[in-house]
Amino acid sequence: MDIANKKIYYPGLSALRLEWPAEQSVNYGVVINFDEEQENNEVKYQLRLTRLKPVDENQALFQIERISDVFINETLPDFIADRLAYAAGKVFYPLVVSVDHNGGFESIYNHKEILSRWPTVKNKILDNFEGDLVEDYLLKMEQQLSSQEKIQIAFLNHDWFLHTFFRPIYKEYGRNHSVENIYKFPIVRDFKIEGYQTIEKLSAETNDFGGIELLHEGTILPVNDEYFAYKVAGSYEGYYLLHPKNKRIVSLFSSVTYKEAVKTSVKVKISIIPNGDQEFDHDFILDTNVDRLPVSDMVILDGSSRKGFWERLFNK
């Protein structure tokens, strides 16, 4: 049965709720493009995201594991500084984060575990690198690891995956399926802006793939200062494709720009990696949230008449 372009019946006031059982894992591919003037760099890696059993009743924990190397412009890091940062950054993974009831990032949860890994990671670095640069970098790393707060600030200032994936999107969107929020991004880390004033629009119907769409459109919100109000500009666009049953993120795209003297933009793409050779369509199982159809109805590719999910997603 086709589930494309069907009316969605959300509970409450158009409430979006995540259904992710504990100990269930999903693999994602991440691509981040940094563009400033004539310089463009791409960072690419894969990770595994697992919902952990909660320690407290109202606490949601997710474990993030890197399951691939990190590629910069399609190659492994080759500059000494990049290689050193990559080697030292391994201390953070697996990373466990706590998430609020809306799906928004709260804190780094496994600080003590990260600290316990550092001696091993440090010894490997000393075995493979030498020089003043290494000593200075290790000193800065140990200062950063000294408290949970410092680790959290470092991730909030640099980690684009956390900023885009763990947004508080699981909430009520009201009768008009639209709400407003202010979002911040690590594209600028000073006092010149409050963030990006964003309109969030939740789809009333499934799209051509049978998924739920969430659109973000935002403009930069300078601080209440006439000088900065005229000097800075920027925009934010976000697109989330969600599974119609469990509301997990299937794919997302985020584009953030900031312009003062120079225009800077960061684009993030995150997509589920299918399990083996299976198409993702087989898991688009319907429930009563989608046009009041029974849970037994599902979409199965026959391999002939329809395009596969990934072909349809990236080649509309």
Taking the alpha carbons of the first and last residues, their distance comes to 21 Å
Strand content: 25-35%
Structural class: alpha+beta
- Give the helices and strands as they follow along the chain: EEEEHEEHHHHEEEHEEEH
Structural description of this entry:
By secondary structure, this protein is α+β, with helices and mostly antiparallel strands. It is built from 7 helices and 12 strands. Strands 1, 2, 3, 4, 5, 6, 7, 8, 9, 10, 11 and 12 form a 12-stranded antiparallel β-sheet that branches. A hairpin with a 6-residue loop joins strand 10 and strand 11. Helix 1 (80-89) packs parallel to helix 3. The two termini are 21 Å apart.
Task: List the SSEs and their pairings.
Layout: E1 25-36, E2 39-52, E3 60-66, E4 71-72, H1 80-89, E5 95-99, E6 105-108, H2 111-128, H3 132-144, H4 148-158, H5 160-165, E7 178-183, E8 193-202, E9 212-222, H6 226-231, E10 233-242, E11 249-259, E12 263-272, H7 309-314
Antiparallel strand pairs: 1-2, 1-12, 2-3, 2-4, 3-5, 5-6, 7-8, 8-9, 9-10, 10-11, 11-12
In short:
This protein has about 325 residues and is of the alpha+beta class. About 20% of the residues lie in helices and about 30% in strands.
Task: Sum up the structure in keywords.
12-stranded antiparallel β-sheet, 12 strands, 316 residues, 7 helices
